[in-house]
Amino acid sequence: MAAAAVLPASSPGKSTSVPLIVEPKVTHVLGNEEFDPKKHLTFQEPSKIYTMNDIGFPDSNGISPVAVSEPFQLFSEEAVMRMRKEVLSDEVMTNCKYSSNIAHCQLRGFANKYAPFTYDLWKHPDTLAIISKIAGIDLVTEMDLEIAHINLSIKSEEEQHQEMDAFNERAQYEADEGIAGCPWEDDTPIVGWHRDSYPFVCVTMLSDCTNMIGGETALRTGNGDIMKVRGPQMGCAVVMQGRYIEHQALRALGTTERITMVTSFRPRCPKMRDDTVLTTVRPISNLQELYHQFSEYRLEILEERIRQQLKDLREATSSGRRIPTKKLKAFLEEQERFLRHMNNEMVDEENVVMGVQVECHPVEVKEGSKAKKRPRGE
Ligand SMILES: [Fe+2]
């Protein structure tokens, strides 16, 4: 997830402005029935899925060989509009809104309280199967708190026009100088280089981006080059293993409204490593909820691992086999690390400065790294 410096809704930094949101035109009257995968999922395979190997890393770089997908169609127009209706409801805007100098408006922790359609959509086995297939590993949603995190960016038409004027002026200059033909190379990112807190992320676009320029995600490859992945169009999504790849979100021009929905995932199998950290989300979360959900799922993982270990021990004893002491000690050491990691992530509440987090896992830019341009439309 692209996290930013944000302030909790109850803080003095709470934004009091009302976002100017213009609903996209819809071709159908919205229903209000429950999520139906046959109706609301319109999945089409991504044109390309880049592996860790493709971008210069060994497959062992993460929990899966998959690095990132190209944008792919995922949700019907009705599903998008139903999610928008829930996300932009008065209850969510009033109770779940965070703002900052970088991210004017983020909405968090609302899905299991105020957005039943959105919640069901992300928890449904068919949706999880699609995300898992692209990710190359069986995934579940990270925690309820991280279902459908919203980044909301609204500009006035005047601001939009000013940006486009600046862009056109620069394009004209570049044409005059004979350097036209390059993609928009505004290197001012929304969020600096970072890795996410969670293993996998699915970013879905809920706005009409027909006229959008920019808005890509830049990735740093294994040899230090920079690769850009296109941002998704409305109803489309991108899946990325953001915990293990340095990346940054680039600015988008040409739209008054940009609403992205970010849902995070972790491996389903309790035996898999879980490198989840809370660095990027601690200062922008209700800590009671965050620590409860984090400790609950981690303890469930531990419970399952111990259950399996006990079974193995009992079977060894009942069949008269030797207890594999080395293996048992390795298991215990792994669980010690697992618990220590978990304990470290649950920073005492009095030591968490809410709303103060300039960057998440910042990574130094290597000397001499250069942007690698990809052909348009690739
Ligand atoms: Fe991110």
What attributes characterize this protein structure?
single chain, 378 residues, alpha+beta, Jelly Rolls, eight-stranded antiparallel beta sheet, four-stranded antiparallel beta sheet, 9 helices, 16 strands, 31% helix, disordered N terminus, disordered C terminus, binds fe (ii) ion
Description:
The longest helix has 32 residues. α8 runs antiparallel to α9. The protein contains nine helices and 16 strands. With 378 residues, it is of the alpha+beta class. 31% of the residues lie in helices and 18% in strands. Strands 3, 4, 5, 6, 7, 9, 13 and 16 form an eight-stranded antiparallel beta sheet that branches. Strands 8-14-11-12 form a four-stranded antiparallel beta sheet, with no helix packed on it. It has a two-stranded antiparallel ribbon with strand order 1-2. Bound molecules: fe (ii) ion. The site of fe (ii) ion has 6 residues, from loops. Keywords: Coiled coil.
